[in-house]
Design a protein that fits this description.
By secondary structure, the chain is of the alpha+beta class. The protein contains 4 helices and 4 strands. Strands 1-2-3-4 form a 4-stranded antiparallel β-sheet.
């Protein structure tokens, strides 16, 4: 059975109770009319019958009003059902939003991990370090943006959960109102049963009155018979008495007709009383069903409240995780900034090393060129001195040199030599002694 069907059952109970209680509680005394007209004593005359007809018409008007009230009650119940359905949908949306927030947070953690990996790679690779650091910074910014989006999603999920709680509170209030209505209906049903009992008692009194009336009618018939006998004996004596006797007989006949009508009215009233008792029993059964439905609805509301509480806890956990992720992302961003500074320092050092190495390479090439230019030749036999002029080249560098050598001593076995060279603003030289024997 759906919730809407449950609410409809509750509404039927309300309609049945209203249709039975309102007419009887307001007009039960009027239906039990004490007839005071007619020549035969307690016999209903036309004014009494008109009063009964007026009460019946009033009951019909009350039933129409109760039908409208029942329609309004059905509309209110449908609105309550719609509110409950909206609360369930809102709770589902809150759960979905929480799941999305968790997924976004996981993506933020992954992005932060990727940013850290990019920073490590940037630290390891010196070439292109500036570009890698820039990319790592961009990844960190994207991770920060993703984390901010996760925080916003968590806030939206919290708002949706608050809306779900409000809707659940509204549904609870509506259910409490339904319980109060059931209590009111039960009171009205009890009043209806009391009114039905009073109507039964009134009907029993009417039967007793009818019995008394029948006794009086029988006595009237006996009196009329006696009067007829007396009249027959006195016909010749008093014609006026005969006329009065005829009038008495007519009155007795009218009284009999009125009594027969009262019996028919009492029979109709008894039928209506029986129908009211049946309707009261049906209303009680329907009310019992409504109470059972309310118990089921209360259980469903409590289940929804438990689920909402669980969702709120999960959302809070997600919010805590997101806060932790934001802290980790900030730490990663700080580390990336430190790495970027270190990388920039290393890049500057590397440029300095490259410049120094290039300078050293140039100096080395110049030295090799000057060395090639400063070649020394010993004086030939018979000569004491020798002067050499030469050039040298190495890896794009060129040098000019002048060298000299001479024999020393009487034997001429010792040779002294020296040389100077120049290459692109750099000068060099060499000197030495050579012995031979």
């Amino acid at each position: 059975m759906t919730s809407k069907t449950k609410v409809s059952t509750f509404t039927v109970a309300a309609v049945a109770a209203l249709c039975i209680v309102a007419p009887i509680s307001a007009h039960a005394q009027s239906l039990a009319v004490t007839c005071e007209g007619g020549a035969g004593g307690d016999v209903c005359d036309q004014s009494d019958i008109n009063e009964i007809v007026a009460d019946v018409n009033q009951n019909a008007t009350d039933i129409d009003a109760n039908t409208i009230a029942a329609s309004n009650a059905q509309t209110a119940a449908d609105n309550a059902q719609t509110t409950a359905n909206g609360a369930a949908t809102t709770a589902g949306n809150a759960q979905t939003a929480a799941d999305n927030a968790q997924t976004t947070a996981n993506g933020a953690v992954t992005a932060a991990g990727n940013a850290q990996t990019a920073a490590d790679n940037a630290q390891t690779t010196a070439n292109g370090a500036t570009t890698a650091a820039s990319n790592a910074q961009t990844a960190a910014d994207n991770a920060q943006t993703t984390a901010n989006g996760a925080v916003t999603a968590a806030d939206n999920a919290q708002t949706a959960a608050d809306n779900a709680q409000t809707a659940a509170d509204t549904a609870q209030s509506t259910a409490d109102g339904a319980v109060a209505v059931n209590a009111t209906q039960q009171t009205e049903i009890d009043a209806n049963e009391a009114a039905a009992a009073n109507a039964q008692s009134t009907a029993d009194g009417a039967v007793a009155v009818n019995t008394t009336q029948q006794t009086e009618i029988d006595a009237n018939e006996t009196t009329a018979a006696n009067a007829q006998a007396t009249a027959d004996d006195a016909v010749a004596v008093n014609a006026t008495q005969q006329t009065e006797i005829d009038a008495n007989e007519t009155t007795a006949a009218n009284a009999q007709t009125t009594a027969d009508g009262a019996v028919a009215v009492n029979t109709t009233q008894q039928t209506e009383i029986d129908a009211n008792e049946t309707a009261a029993a049906n209303a009680q059964s329907t009310a019992d069903g409504a109470v059972a439905v309310n118990v089921t609805q209360q259980q469903e509301i409590e289940t929804n409240e438990d689920n909402i509480a669980t969702n709120v806890t999960n959302i809070q956990t997600n919010a805590n995780n997101i806060a932790t992720n934001v802290t980790n992302i900030q730490t990663n961003a700080d580390n990336i900034a430190t790495n970027s500074a270190d990388i920039a320092t290393n890049a500057a050092d590397i440029v300095d090393l490259k410049d120094g190495l290039s300078e050293l390479r140039g100096d080395l090439n110049k030295g090799l060129a000057m060395s090639n230019a400063m070649e020394v030749f010993a004086p030939d036999p018979g000569s004491n001195f020798r002067l050499n002029v030469g050039t040298g080249f190495h890896d794009g560098e060129s040098a000019f040199a002048v060298t000299a050598s001479g024999r020393v001593g009487e034997a001429g076995s010792t040779i002294v030599y020296l040389g100077v060279a120049a290459a692109d603003g750099t000068a060099g030289g060499k000197a030495g002694v050579s012995f031979q024997w």
